[in-house]
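Students often ask why we bother encoding 3D structure as a string. The short answer is that it lets us treat folding as translation between two languages. Here is a chain of 254 residues written in the first language.
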Amino acid sequence: MAEHFVQFRVEGQAVYGMMHLPEGKGKFPAVALCHGFTGNRIEAHRLFVKMARLLAANGIAALRFDFRGSGESEGDFEQVTVSGEIADALAALEFLRKQPEIDSSRVGLLGLSLGGCVATCTAARDGKVKALVLWAAVADLKGPFVERMAPEVRDLLNKQGWLDFGGWKVSKAFYEDAAKIEPLREALRYDGAVLIAHGANDPVVPIDHAHRYHAAFQCTKKLHIIPDADHTFARLNWEEEVMKVTLDWFKTWL
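And here it is in the second language, the structure alphabet:
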């Protein structure tokens, strides 16, 4: 297997990533990985590194990348919006399809948490994503991000134009943009094969988000609930299970 750093540009800013290529000569199927809110291309307990290497060991190339304003990519977090991340993911697919080792007709997407919402919208808009996997994906941005905001927090956001989210500067533009994104509506347009994996004890994105996605998708679909698991599958047995079902899905549909 070979791993090398890559970069591509979106709206003049560099997006940095890591490409994982299987042994041998391509053309390989490939998967782009979309990280979560305030995450990066490594993700919690190196989850994306492990998943990408597992894919590559099984003949599927993988591209892990940092959204602009996250990880090492250019831009500031204050500029991050969901629409901007969708633009980055569409550019990642375009970059992948241009690589000489990649079979451009066999490309998939994997998204974790907010990255699952981004991956859903990206797959629907791109129109050529053969297989999609959602991990603990956010199905509704209005509820958690917009409507449940305490009045005093909303006043502060309106007054200063941003909120301090554990050291991350989240802009008013992020919330305004999030209110317009409807992943469940976009899911209706996706016609590939989708696997929805979720931990039964996810304290961040409740499990009903998984059920809502499963109901919304009208294509080939599978719901996989991992008993007791948390938001990022942060136990070795949970991690192993989510990675195995994901690998099986991509092997089947790419």
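Translate back mentally: The beta strands are 2-10, 13-21, 28-34, 61-65, 102-112, 131-135, 162-165, 168-171, 193-199, 220-226. Keep this in mind for the problem set.
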